[in-house]
Write a structure and sequence with these properties.
The protein has a single domain, classed as OB fold (Dihydrolipoamide Acetyltransferase, E2P), CATH 2.40.50. With 212 residues, it is of the alpha+beta class. The strands form 3 sheets. Strands 1, 2, 3, 4, 5, 9, 10 and 11 form an 8-stranded mixed sheet that branches. Strands 6-12 form a two-stranded antiparallel ribbon. This is Endonuclease YncB, thermonuclease family.
């Protein structure tokens, strides 16, 4: 009877294991990912989109600007803030598996949580290299704020540029195709409501075009 009981227990545990959905580890999204942008991951194994909680980054189509003047141009040299943020997140993950501990949902319905690759917090690493900024309730996180201050003081990533707050960009940007030109973000920057970069006079000059 004891042998039969052990066999039944083994069968039940095996069945439970096989019933567990792929792409999860202890109920958390886990596995290899596709990087969508500087704060968003796609888990193909579980068909889930996960945002890095507590941080924000430039949208893929968003431009920032080098504060150094190049020649006599009235427009500052554009910096592809969105693609660079995405590239850095891909670099930080490399070929590692990612595990996320979900804490909430983002406003568009995507999951949001703390994600690690190789045991490292991806949000912390993005803040450390300057391609993300602290956002939301995690403003209370001393670690996140400490790494943001570190990157800002070193002028890493987006902190070496003049850039509009990503939330403000999402609210105001009209043209959201690959055809979007840097002048559109220069115009938005010149009328920004919130300052996240050091103030500078040239960005306040109204350009002759009004693309958005």
């Amino acid at each position: 009877m004891r042998t039969i009981a052990l066999m039944l227990a083994s069968a039940i545990s095996t069945g439970a294991a096989s019933a567990a959905p792929s792409g999860y580890l202890d109920g958390r999204p886990a596995g290899y990912v596709t990087v969508i942008d500087g704060r968003t991951l796609w888990f193909p194994g579980s068909a889930q989109k996960v945002r890095l909680a507590g941080i924000d980054s430039c949208e893929l189509l968003q431009w920032a600007f080098d504060p150094k003047r190049h020649g006599n141009s009235l427009i500052l040299k554009p910096v592809p803030c969105g693609p660079l943020s995405k590239a850095w997140l891909k670099r930080l993950i490399g070929g590692s598996r990612v595990v996320c501990r979900i804490s909430s949902y983002s406003t568009d319905g995507a999951l949001a949580g703390r994600c690690t690759a190789g045991g490292r917090d991806l949000a912390v690493d993005m803040l450390r290299v300057g391609w993300a900024r602290v956002k939301g309730p995690s403003r209370a996180s001393s670690e996140y704020l400490r790494w943001q201050r570190y990157a800002m003081s070193a002028r890493y990533g987006m902190w070496a540029t003049y850039v509009i707050d990503p939330d403000e960009w999402r609210a105001k940007a009209v043209e959201r195709t690959l055809a979007r030109k840097p002048i559109a973000d220069f115009n938005l920057l010149s009328e920004r409501a919130h300052e996240i970069s050091p103030p500078f006079l040239d960005a306040r000059r109204r350009p002759p075009r009004s693309d958005r």
